[in-house]
Every structure is written in C-alpha cells, then in structure tokens.
C-alpha cells in the first residue's frame, strides 16, 4: 500500500493504474477510521480495482470554537486499518499543499448549504465542498464513496458533482451502527460512558418518528415534537434541531409524502452528534 502526501505522486500512481486498465475509487475521510469508514472502502472495492483513501483533517470546515485542535489523528492505526481493508493508496496531504499562502478559491453550493447544519455551522459546507472538489480534482476517480450518516453533506456533494459536470459516480453507503443503534462516528470517542448511553437518544428519537408515521400520525409538527421531547428527556443534552424534511431538497414539508428523512443534531455534553433516518410510507 502506497502512502504519500504529494500531489505529483498521487497522480503518477493513478496514471500507472489507469494504464493497467484499473478503475479508480476514492474514499475521502478525516481519519480516525472506524467500521463505518471501512464499509465505504468495501463498497468502493465492489466497483473498482484501485481504492484510494484520503486522510486530511480539513481546517476550513471547522468553525471558531469547534474541535479542530482536538480532533483525533491516529494516523498509524488508520494506515493499519487501510492495509487490512485492501486499500491501494492513502493520500495524507499537509495543509500548505492544499491551502497555500494566498489561497482564495471556494466552492459554495447555494441554497441547501445555509439550512440545518449550514445554519448551525456557518461556512462549514463551503469548507466541505471546497476540499472535496479539490480532492476529486487531484485524484479524478471514477467512483467516490460517502456515508449516509452525514446526510446533508452527501446530498450537497452529489449536487456539486452534478452542477460541475464531474464524470464521477457518487456512491452513498448506509450508516453503520453499533449493536445498540448508535451511529458510528469518530467523535463518539469524546463521550464518557454515561454520555455514550445518553447518545442513544438520537437513534431512539428516529425510531419514534418512524413508528409514529407508520402508525398513522399525519402531523409533521407532532412528529418533530415527539423527537424533540425524547431528546430533552435526557440530562446533559442540547438539541439543535429535530426535523422531518424532503429527502432530496431538505426543504420543509407542508404535508406528508411517500419518502421523507428525519434529521437530528444535538450536543451530548460537549460533543455534537448528528443522525438521520430515511422513512418510507406504505403506498
């Protein structure tokens, strides 16, 4: 497995692989890899011959007072996990190579990037779409894999790829969960044992939303309130939103529709967690 932080070396490796007839797949990450990330590698390997994982803690998607400095960076453990998963190459760039002095170009997807996560974390998605566009431009993969847990992020990335006519298939893989339902996240390691139990309130609230809708509840406001009430029944939480939205646009719903997505963001202690659930009503 090749490991490099150099753009020229990445492009040379990809060119060699293409000359051998390989299809190229990319899994962009910020490291601190867990089973959810490895599932993206496995999904990518089903489609291509050469899988490249990027590990880069992107400073431009963190706001003031967020966890950029303490974000986990266990590089050697991440590389071991990539080797075990059959990754062909890991790209580990340094900040100056991607954001040199005088850098001033940004990719901004209008509309959806200003609501929900975008409202809670201003400029977050500008940083996300910019770094993903840069990585896709450097690597120029045939396939790029993202996780469904970051629902709004993958929706924005798919729109960016469409809008910029990138010849890339974006694959969204299902959220990987712990046995008790907690969505896997690199930030889960911030949680104390007590907070880890409290964090189950997110998946439980999503269960409540789905069960309410399947039982015949027709009030969107009531479903959202039930999610919020469940989150607030726990100590040491600070919910930011519990909503039911259109799965493609994330716009507010005026009435129920066959396909919807429930989305939650809340702090548990000082750790901010998100989760979501696609909900299909019987026809």
TrEMBL record:
A single GO cellular-component term on record: cytosol
Location(s), subcellular: Cytoplasm
GO molecular function: ATP binding; pantoate-beta-alanine ligase activity
Annotated residues for binding of (R)-pantoate: 61, 153
Reactions it catalyzes: (R)-pantoate + beta-alanine + ATP = (R)-pantothenate + AMP + diphosphate + H(+)
GO biological process, one term: pantothenate biosynthetic process
Keyword list, A-Z: ATP-binding, Cytoplasm, Ligase, Nucleotide-binding, Pantothenate biosynthesis
Record organism: Thalassoglobus polymorphus
Binding site for ATP: 30-37, 147-150, 176, 184-187
InterPro entries: Cyt_trans-like (IPR004821), Pantoate_ligase (IPR003721), Pantoate_ligase_C (IPR042176), Rossmann-like_a/b/a_fold (IPR014729)
NCBIfam families on file: cyt_tran_rel, panC
Lineage: Bacteria, Pseudomonadati, Planctomycetota, Planctomycetia, Planctomycetales
Gene name for this UniProt entry: panC
Coiled coil: none
Note: The reaction proceeds by a bi uni uni bi ping pong mechanism.
Active site annotation, chain numbering: 37 (proton donor)
UniProt name for this protein: Pantothenate synthetase
């Amino acid at each position: 497995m090749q490991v490099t932080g150099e753009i020229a070396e990445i492009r040379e490796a990809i060119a060699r692989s293409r000359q051998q007839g390989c299809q190229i797949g990319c899994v962009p990450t910020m490291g601190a890899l867990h089973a959810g990330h490895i599932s993206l590698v496995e999904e990518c390997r089903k489609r291509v011959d050469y899988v490249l994982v990027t590990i880069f803690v992107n400073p431009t998607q963190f706001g003031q007072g967020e966890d950029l400095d303490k974000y986990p960076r266990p590089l050697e453990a991440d590389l071991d996990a990539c080797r075990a998963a059959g990754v062909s190459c890991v790209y580990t760039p340094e900040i100056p190579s991607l954001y040199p002095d005088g850098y001033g170009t940004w990719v901004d997807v209008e509309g959806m990037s200003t609501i929900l996560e975008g409202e809670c974390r201003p400029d977050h998605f500008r940083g996300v779409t910019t770094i993903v566009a840069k990585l896709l431009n450097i690597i120029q993969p045939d396939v790029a894999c993202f996780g469904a847990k970051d629902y709004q992020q993958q929706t924005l990335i798919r729109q960016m790829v469409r809008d910029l006519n990138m010849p890339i298939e974006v694959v969204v893989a299902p959220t990987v969960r712990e046995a008790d339902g907690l969505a896997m996240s690199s930030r889960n390691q911030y949680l104390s044992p007590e907070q880890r139990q409290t964090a189950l309130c997110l998946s439980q609230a999503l269960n409540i939303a789905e069960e309410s809708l399947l039982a015949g509840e027709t009030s969107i406001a009531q479903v959202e309130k039930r999610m919020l009430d469940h989150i607030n029944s726990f100590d040491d939480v600070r919910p930011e939103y519990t909503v039911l939205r259109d799965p493609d646009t994330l716009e507010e719903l005026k009435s129920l529709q066959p396909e919807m997505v429930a989305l939650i963001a809340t702090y548990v202690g000082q750790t901010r967690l998100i989760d979501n659930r696609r909900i299909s009503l019987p026809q």
